[in-house]
Design brief:
Elements (H helix, E strand, L loop, with lengths): L6 H12 L4 H8 L3 H14 L18 H11 L5 H10 L6 H10 L16 H13 L10 E8 L26 E9 L2 E9 L1
Antiparallel strand pairs: 1-2, 2-3
Helix pairs in contact: 1-2, 2-3, 5-6
Length: 201
């Protein structure tokens, strides 16, 4: 992790700015990045000090107490995004970033997943039909059911990127020729696959 420059450098840079030097002049004279000079100047103007915050970010104390007591039931109410929680915490007076909220959610044993259902299921008429279907499922003769599904494969299914040492090229290999898609459609009955169909295009 990068170490911060000493306070002596910060003070000298700001003193030179106060004396009328430009940002490029200060950066060149102290052999530092111009962006650092700009950043320190902004920090001093906004919060009265050029000293940086804690390296590695902050773990807000409130998140372990009052806000943690609010977050736990909030995360149990239903689906949420990290961005939602960051915005809601900001409204409650606590400014955090996505990483802090992710670490808290991970510590609570939550994992990122997604299950999407059709919103139409909540309509009264659809809900009645689904309830009727569930009630009658047990009377269906499974031997009459056919499940139709589709899968495919492409001849260009080769990795496009990989890892290599910095400064060195990474060479990958892929078949030469026209890249096509092969589609496989079939029906699945209780006793096996029926009517397989392959489309090569």
């Amino acid at each position: 992790m990068t170490k911060p420059l000493s306070m002596d450098i910060w003070n000298r840079a700001l003193a030179r700015l106060d004396a009328g030097q430009t940002v490029p002049e200060v950066a060149d004279g102290l052999s530092i990045a111009p962006s650092s000079v700009v950043k320190w100047s902004q920090w001093r103007r906004v919060r009265g000090s050029a000293a940086p915050g804690k390296i590695g970010g902050h773990v807000p104390r409130k998140s372990r107490g009052e806000q943690a007591d609010w977050l736990r039931p909030r995360m149990g109410d239903g689906a949420f995004t990290l961005r939602d929680l960051v915005a809601e915490l900001a409204e409650r007076g606590l400014k955090v970033d996505d990483r802090t909220v992710w670490a808290f959610a991970h510590g609570e044993g939550l994992s990122f997943k997604k299950t999407t259902l059709a919103s139409e299921q909540e309509r009264p008429d659809i809900a009645r039909k689904r309830a009727r279907w569930r009630a009658r499922q047990g009377s269906i003769d499974l031997k009459r059911l056919v499940f139709i599904d589709e899968t495919w494969a492409k001849t260009n299914m080769a990795p496009l990127r990989g890892w290599a040492a910095r400064g060195q090229r990474l060479i990958g290999r892929a078949p030469f020729g026209h890249w096509n898609t092969m589609t496989f459609i079939a029906g699945q009955r209780q006793d096996g696959i029926v009517a397989p169909w392959v489309i090569d295009g």
